[in-house]
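In the current project phase, the collection of sequences with tokenised folds has grown. A representative record is quoted in full directly below:
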Amino acid sequence: MRDGAGFAFAGSGLDRAAVARAAPERIAALFASSGAQVLPLWRGRPLFAGDALGWLAPGHAILANAAVAPIFLAAEAGQAWFALDLSDWQPDPPAAAAPSVFDAGDQRHPLLPEPFVFGDLRNRMAGLGAREGELAAMARALSEWHRSHGYCARCGGASQPSHAGWQRHCPTCKADHFPRTDPVVIMLVTRGNCTLLGRGPGWPAGSYSCLAGFVEPGETVEAAVRREVAEETGVTVGTVRYVTSQPWPFPASLMLGCHGEALDTELICDPLEIEDARWVSREDLAKVLAGSHPEIRAPRRGAIAADLLHRWLADRRH
């Protein structure tokens, strides 16, 4: 099966043409080519045109006053894709507060007609094909990294983008910095005929998902699964098996999907992390995934949690 098939941001087989990043003349030629397309982003929200990404030509008026250089994403078969952060643009009237995890947060731009809109990628990811999903994940993760890492972590001086947006260089101490990816374990925890689901504080009513948490320094994936489940719910996990992974650009994580076998079922939730947790039988999970459960909403389409739950319900291990 293709890696990442069934969920967003993975599995397109994209050629990232990484060797071109260190050749400024090659990047300039690609940007000037007839096959070049630019994906604008505004405060973490990519441009959409209906259900697809809102690609623009490099000479479009909306791109003229960008405060940063475009980021090279990939090139193949006569096409070249770039991302450009337009976060310095100020809407009139001013935009509302940044969208929450469950808020679409759409924003129109006066130079773009309908159906163009800057939208929340998390809420639109399921509608994107594999190729556009991978490009969108790259664009968002890289643009947010540049927005939050403008200063050198070694000396504190202002750093500059380099290598077509895939590095930052400090002219003061000559240090080079690279985009970070944070590993996160997300685990399907089962005990017999039941799986463990939890909900975070402030989630909409009925929203539950697999447990998840960051891998700590010096920790294996298996140890992270056991620690996170124990900390959040008090459940002890024995055998842990890796299943699959998903890039998650919110802001820059790699979700490591695992299956953990619980050794007990008593729940003692950490109220700072988990508002509620419950064991859900296969029969009830079938209703959840069908959207017919009276208390639990179906998981977000395109997310790895939904894939893990579907795999278990179908008794698939790969």
